[in-house]
Structures are given as C-alpha cells and as structure tokens.
Amino acid sequence: MELGFQIVARKGAGQFRVLVFDRMKRLHFPLTVFAAEAVKRSSDSTARLYLNAVIPFFEWLEKDESQGGTGRSWDDPPEAIRQGVGDYLVERLKCKVREHYAGFQLVSLTDGTQTTVRVFLSALKLFYRVMRAQDLYRHANALVDGPSAVLAEVQDRIAGGDSLPRMPEVSGVVHPRKQRLSDSYFKLVGETWIPQVIDDPEFPARVLSGGQSVGWHLQEQCIARILFESGCRVSEAVGLSLRDWAARGLLQEAQAFNKGSHGRRVKFIRFSAATAKLLRRWFDTERRQLDRNHHMLDDYLQSAENDTNLYHVPLFLCRRGTQLSPKAFREGCWNPACQAAGIEADVHQARHWYVTQAIRSIYETARLESEINRRLRELIEYMGWKSGWETLQAYQHYFDPQRHAEIQDQLHKRMDRALKGDLAQPPSRHPAVTAPSGAVLQVENAGRSNQDGERDSDLEYLLALGGGRGIPGDGE
Questions:
Q1: SS3 of 38, please?
Q2: Which of 109, 242, 341, 457 has the most crowded Cβ, counting Cβ within 10 A?
C-alpha cells in the first residue's frame, strides 16, 4: 500500500517541533521549515491545520510526476506553480477557476468543493512567503498578485492602516466599510454572505468529546457550552466579566457587548442551569489557581467596593492570569478538539448551529403563522442582528426546502397507505367515482383510451391511488 506524507511531533524543546516526511520516508525540509514558522507565528494546532491543508497538494505534485505527468515541483517558477494550483483546485478540490480581466484568478465553490479551500490558499501563500524569507525559493510568491498587492498597499495607506476585513452588512455588523483589496492571485468569489448552517444535533457533543480527549479543563467546557447554548460569538463569551454575570443574578444569564458596540453591554446571553453550575465550580477551583489574587467567587463579591469594580474581573483566564483571548481559545482549544473529534468546523459555526436549532424549534412548535413571525422577531432581537430579517432570510433559504421535504414525506406516506389498501382489494371491488356533474364514472373507465386509442395509464394509476374519488367526469 502506498504511503503518504507523515507529520511527526518532536518531543522536547527546539526550533523544529514538527517534522514532515515525504512518501519515501525522507525528511521534507521545506515543509518542516514551514511548520516551524507556522508554530512561531501562531501555535502547534495552526501549524498542523496548515500542513493538513497543503500536504495533499504536495502529494498530488509528486504523484503527478510519478505517473508521467508534467514533472511539477514546488520550487518551479511562479507561472508553473500557478498552473499547478489551478489544476489542483479544479481536479481535486472541485472548484471552478476563471481568469479575471485584471489578470488574477477567480475561484468559485461548487457543491462538491471541500471546505478547506480557503485554508489551503492561505497556507500555500504563507508557505511561499516563508520559503522566500528563508531563501529557499528564488522567485516571486506565486500566490501573490503583483498589481493587487500594490493597490492593496496604497489602499492601506489611504485608510490609515485600518484595513481589517469586515463581514458584509447582511451578516449583522453595524457599519460596513470598504473591504481591503486582497493581494492574492487566487481570489475566492462570493461577496454575498451565506451562513454555514449546521443541523446536526450531535455537533456540540462531538466537540465536547474531542475536547475531553485533548485534556480540556472546566474553563474550556464552560466556554464551549456557552457558545452552543447562547449563540454568542467567541469574543463575547471569553470577554465576559464577573460584573456581566453578577448583573443578571449569577444564574443562567450574563450581559454582554455586541459586535460594534465598542464594549458597551447592549444585550444579554442565556445558558443552561448545568453550565451555570459548572461555571461556579470553575471559578472556585481551577480559576482560583490562575487568579493572581487566588480569590473565590464569594471573595470577589464581598471585597468589591461597588459592582463596577467587577468589570475588571474576567471570568476566563489564560495561564498568565490575564483575560483569555478569542484567538487563544480558537487555536489552542477549539481547533485541537475538532481535530481530535474528526470534524472540520470553525468556532463561529457554534453560533450558526444555535440559530439553526432555534429556527427549527420555532417551526416545529409554533402553530400559527403569526406566532412564527413573533418568535422569529424575538430571535432577531436576542441575536442582536442589525440587518435582522435579511440575516434571517439567509437561514430560511435552508429551511424552506426542508419544510417542503417534510410535506413530501407526509404525501409519500399517504400515497403508500392508499396504494397498499387498494392493492389488497380485489379488482372488482373498486368504488364508483362521483363526478361533479352527478354522473357516475366507474373505475373501469380508468382503462379508457386516449385520442390515439391507447390506454391512459397515468389516469389509471391516479385513480387507483385515490381510491376512485374526486376524479372529474368525461364532460370536464
């Protein structure tokens, strides 16, 4: 059996904590150097994420060469690299690639496209940036479009450096602004924001199970449960203070800031009683060990001169005793848990999962259309969406066919019952059909001929399914 590339974690300290071996079990030095830089820039989990995204491309290059292909290599000139990446996107990742009039390539996703396309392009772009910095690749970065890079730099200077990417307005962000021009040669198509709808009820359990296998503590469990149970963003969860929780009675709710509220607490989030109990346990045990004052929950509540002081007491801490950051949770906790569980999911998909389940519950329990609309408005208000109904419409595009599928299932069951009942009766016992005009049309007429003298089998089939009732007479 042919072996692929292998990623080996190296025990102990050192510059190269992750080693990569090729199909011949030889050290792949460029990928090993890339892994070291990825670890240095972010974390071990991010390095593995990037490696898992680009290694299939390197395997594809070697396999193509071994099977009499064009003999491509990762250190080819940019034109050859771009051609190879384009072929890989089409053949392996099932994308559509077309050239823009400005010279770069537009990458469109299809139903068969793997979810790693964005990670693959970002990781490969970083790979060639590292190779150039290490003087291992003597050409220009093949994943960077020269003219776009110049325009992006000019745009950054005009904007005063404020060029962080933003979500479109429909996603619920308060003030949309002009997006930064990407300098990538391969640009993903799609200005319209489409939420990733997750309808798997076992999604939270799988993430928590993966977290348990990688050694999650009470803090990670609390954050993950809050994300799934409240639908809040990861920044809102890890940014909670003791004051936010105390302001809602230290029970199942906490006030929170919203994206674009600049830290002002403009909404609240709600989680389960079990999570609230777990949160108290975390605060009085594991958090106390990380806290610089070694205070328990009651210690802070009693020593606070007023409630505003509790704003400076974060609920969640990193190992240094300071507030945990979204990036630290995402890369150090969430990503390893998902990898251990064998799933591919960004932390923001917990929010999409919550909305999906909430909408499903509304449609399943509400009886009247007015009740559905009222509860959907309540969901919009709770989520804090600025473009409420527009954002909700993106989710309902998923539920509309789902609701019709449920109608189809009911129709299929009725048809099946009717067919079984009809077939169980002798052919001579078919009931008569009363036409609207009052004339009686016997079921034997189901075998009548059409204009060409042939039996109308479609009508015969429908008569049999319907039990011979309600079929129009000959005069209609």
A1: helix
A2: 242
Question: Residue type at 234?
Answer: V
Single-letter residue type at 151 = L
Closest by CA to 128, choosing from 84, 87, 94, 96, is 84
Give, as one character, the DSSP assignment of residue 7.
E
Q: Which two tokens stand for residue 354?
A: 């919550």
Kindly give the pairing relationship between strand 265-270 and strand 253-257: antiparallel
Structure tokens at 373: 């609309």
For residues 231 and 358, the answer to whether their CB atoms sit within 8 Å is: yes
The CATH T-level fold of domain 203-354 is hpI Integrase; Chain A (1.10.443)
The domain ranges of the chain are: 6-188, 203-354, 427-466
Dist CA 298 CA 13 (whole Å): 41
> DSSP letters of 400-416?
HHHHHHHHHHHHHHHHH
- State the 10-residue block means of pLDDT for the chain, 476 residues long: 72 76 87 88 78 90 61 88 92 88 82 75 92 92 73 49 43 40 73 58 92 94 96 94 93 88 85 96 96 92 76 93 94 92 87 89 87 90 82 70 60 75 58 39 40 49 45 38
